């Protein structure tokens, strides 16, 4: 929950840059900073040997998944409010639960399906008038959701091959060049809105800040997925909606309507139900 909440805080910082620099370039620079910071941390804490790349194809898959999520979501918040983009991305737990069956051979507990379904209803309540208005832009957060689902599944598959800190270095090692390539392609073919120029120092500092906070967020999410199944961890993503609503209201003046708050309450209720269902049952001592 802390990891997903931290991601929404970083998303709010990124949204503040959308009118100043292309989203593709922001995503690339954020991961360049993240890669530099986490590589230095690995070197200082674990030594040069920890910079090796175990199971490179799996690490490349993790990097591609997070690059897809970052690029697509940064594109999404260019054209819609933060809370709406976050809400649409909440199809990720449903995708995770579905994909973990063929890809990981896991069986999602019934409570995970109930909680995810209820939370998805809450998302629909939040979005109720917006889907038709947003049109094709809805595809960006949906693509981000697919990337997040694949990342959580790949994290589970990669469990134990390196330390949690080294795993964050590995994901940034592959995500950064992919995002740089996307930014370069956008500069060449994407029109004026995607053209990359020298940014203001404040944009660079915000990218550096998000690079650090997002690296910590993914570290927390990775630590969760190696301790429980991907389908069990996935519903905790809904805490992002609450954080996004708060950030949108405080930073951008996006005041949620009462119906949107009702949807948020449905999502909170589903999260509380799921959390309670995972607690160990207490048994009364024998008389």
Automatic annotation (TrEMBL):
Cited PANTHER family: EAMA DOMAIN-CONTAINING PROTEIN, INNER MEMBRANE TRANSPORTER
Pfam assignment, any one: EamA
Origin: domain of life: Bacteria
Gene Ontology terms: cellular component: membrane
Transmembrane segments: 25-45, 57-76, 88-105, 112-128, 134-154, 166-189, 201-223, 230-252, 258-275
Protein name: DMT family transporter
Main location class: membrane
SUPFAM superfamilies (alphabetical): Multidrug resistance efflux transporter EmrE
Domain EamA: 14-127, 136-270
Localization annotation: Membrane
Family statement: Belongs to the EamA transporter family.
Alphabetized UniProt keyword annotations: Membrane, Transmembrane, Transmembrane helix
Topological category with respect to the lipid bilayer: Multi-pass membrane protein
């Amino acid at each position: 929950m802390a990891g997903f909440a931290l991601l929404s805080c970083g998303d709010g910082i990124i949204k503040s840059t959308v009118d100043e620099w292309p989203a593709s370039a922001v995503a690339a620079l954020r991961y360049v900073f993240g890669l530099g910071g986490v590589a230095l941390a690995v070197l200082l804490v674990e030594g040069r040997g920890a910079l090796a790349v175990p199971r490179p194809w799996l690490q490349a898959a993790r990097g591609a998944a997070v690059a897809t999520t970052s690029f697509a979501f940064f594109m999404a918040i260019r054209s819609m409010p933060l809370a709406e983009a976050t809400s649409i991305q909440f199809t990720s737990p449903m995708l995770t639960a579905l994909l973990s069956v063929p890809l990981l051979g896991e069986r999602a507990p019934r409570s995970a399906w109930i909680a995810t379904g209820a939370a998805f209803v809450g998302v629909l309540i939040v979005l109720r008038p917006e889907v038709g208005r947003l049109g094709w832009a809805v595809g960006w957060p949906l693509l981000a959701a697919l990337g997040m689902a694949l990342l959580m599944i790949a994290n589970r598959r990669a469990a134990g091959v390196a330390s949690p800190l080294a795993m964050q270095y590995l994901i940034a090692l592959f995500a950064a060049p992919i995002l740089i390539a996307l930014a370069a392609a956008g500069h060449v073919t994407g029109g004026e809105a995607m053209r990359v120029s020298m940014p203001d120092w404040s944009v660079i500092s915000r990218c550096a800040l998000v690079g650090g906070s997002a690296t910590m967020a993914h570290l927390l999410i990775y630590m969760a997925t190696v301790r429980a199944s991907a389908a069990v961890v996935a519903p905790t993503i809904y805490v992002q909606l609450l954080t996004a609503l708060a950030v949108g209201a405080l930073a951008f003046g996006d005041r949620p309507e009462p119906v949107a708050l009702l949807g948020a309450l449905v999502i909170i209720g589903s999260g509380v139900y799921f959390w309670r269902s995972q607690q160990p049952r207490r048994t009364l001592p024998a008389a």
